[in-house]
Amino acid sequence: MKYVGSKARISRHILPIIQGAIDRNGIETYVEPFVGGGNLIDKVHCHNRIGYDNNEYLIGFWQALQTGWNPGTVPMSKELYTQIKDYKELFRPEVVALAGFCATYNAKWFGGYAGTVKTKTGEIRNYYDEAVRNVLKQIPALADVVFQVKSYEEISPSGCLVYCDPPYEGTTKYIGSFNHSHYWEWVRKMSENNIVICSEYAAPDDFICIWEMERTTTLDKASRTKAIERLFVRRGSGGVFAIYIIRLRPRYGLEYRGKEGSEDESVKSV
Ligand SMILES: C[S@@+](CC[C@H](N)C(=O)[O-])C[C@H]1O[C@@H](n2cnc3c(N)ncnc32)[C@H](O)[C@@H]1O
Q: Taking the model in full, what pTM does it have?
């Protein structure tokens, strides 16, 4: 599904790291607290997969699609889009999400109606139809994912691989605000009982970057910027750090390079 902050384009790079950690450690449950467009969870193989998000419309959308709802039955005109945008409470959650994500420019939540347009090359494109077709293609790969509406701090997994892809600091907002220091504090806690791998551009000092890649991001028609996508895991402090790294190496499928506390301290995916 086209989605703001989608990991579809980098999934071929980060999936082997995440899947490797699941397989090497015999992890049975994969958890995504910020599942969004499901563009990574749809490629992960694990006995149980759970996707949370605090957007109730989005979760309602996935649940409805899993039970056979056909978005093609909704005649999404500009008028209907506007009505849904203004009177969300009158529509079913999946219909609100359909308008908010699929009938809107660049999948930005109610970011303006995007129907049929003539592109610079003269080609006629129906963005809404394309978006719906995209989602329908994704559904078989999401059939057994458990989707639930929750904010990340309400969940407390244990023994799982937790992949976090939160709203990045300083980027486009989703619904509501996001407290980043509160989030990192939660990640620290979750890292005690789970393998937690986080996407972000930057992280606090007690996290180590295990993978990075420059990519161009397009937030709207006018702005194209380069940014470095990174994956982080928590480094413990003091004695815990050594244990953590030693455990990381054979069990988590991550190779440690450099000495603890030295300048070249880093880990790299294998
Ligand atoms: C970067 S997007 C995830 C994109 C997803 N990985 C993909 O590839 O499609 C971040 C998601 O976090 C959700 N979100 C924001 N605040 C949240 C919170 N407090 N708890 C749970 N989800 C939240 C947003 O609704 C959004 O779907």
A: 0.86
